[in-house]
Every structure is written in structure tokens, then in C-alpha cells.
Amino acid sequence: MSGKMASCIFCKIIKGEIPCFKLFESDKTLAFLDINPLSKGHALVIPKHHGEKLTDIPDDQLAEVLPTVKKLAAATGANEWNLLQNNGKGAHQEVGHVHFHMIPKPNAEEGLGISWPQQKTDMDALKKLFEDVKGKM
């Protein structure tokens, strides 16, 4: 086991070394309540495969993530909610193991708050970007 995995809090939770409020578990996926919630029912869904960013996780290890998020939303009774997944410290990732937040948004004060710093669109630059990204898909 690599040093990162040995010190990873989510890997320790997966192995049962640290307790959690487990909501769902399979051979590839674990879901549990967030202990620092933004709202009632805020939960995490993680692949058991250790990887820091989404691009580090094999596709087959992610197959249950969205169905589990859907079940959590229904089970918590969330009518409106956010699904958040951050990649890298600059993008607000605090734990270096891929995780998805299901955050109920019951009102304006609770849940996830978002600013959306929309940029002015240069259509020529957008077309060039489109061609570049599409060519790499």
C-alpha cells in the first residue's frame, strides 16, 4: 500500500479503522453522512478505489456512484440538492481521495452556496476551443 493510501482518511474509513455513519456499501462504493454538513442529510459517496482526482479512477469503479447519489437524495427527502465533486486543492478538494457530495438545499441559508463568475464570450476563441477539445475526445 502506498503512503498516500495508508494516510488517507477515506481509505481508513473504507477499512473500518475510522468509524462512519455508513448509509450504503458495496464492493466498489461507500456512502456515509458528512460529519461537517452544509445541511441536514449532506452525504458523501466515494469509490473504494483510491485516487486523488476523478481521472485517476477507472470507469468501472464509478458505475454505482450516480445511482447511489439518486438513492441518497430520495432517502433524505431532498427536494432540491447539489452534487459536488472537486479535483485538486485549487478547486476546493480537501481530502485527496475522490468523493462526491450530495448536499440537500432546503433553503437559501443552508446547503451549498455558489458564485458563478461568468466570463464574456469571444465566439472566435470559443470556436477554436471547441475544435481543440472535440479533436481530443
TrEMBL record:
Coiled coil: none
Catalytic activity: adenosine 5'-phosphoramidate + H2O = NH4(+) + AMP
InterPro entries per UniProt: HINT, Histidine_triad_CS, Histidine_triad_HIT, HIT-like, HIT-like_sf
Top-level lineage group: Eukaryota
Transferase found in the keyword field: no
A Pfam cross-reference name: HIT
The protein's name: Adenosine 5'-monophosphoramidase HNT1
Organism (species): Cladorrhinum samala
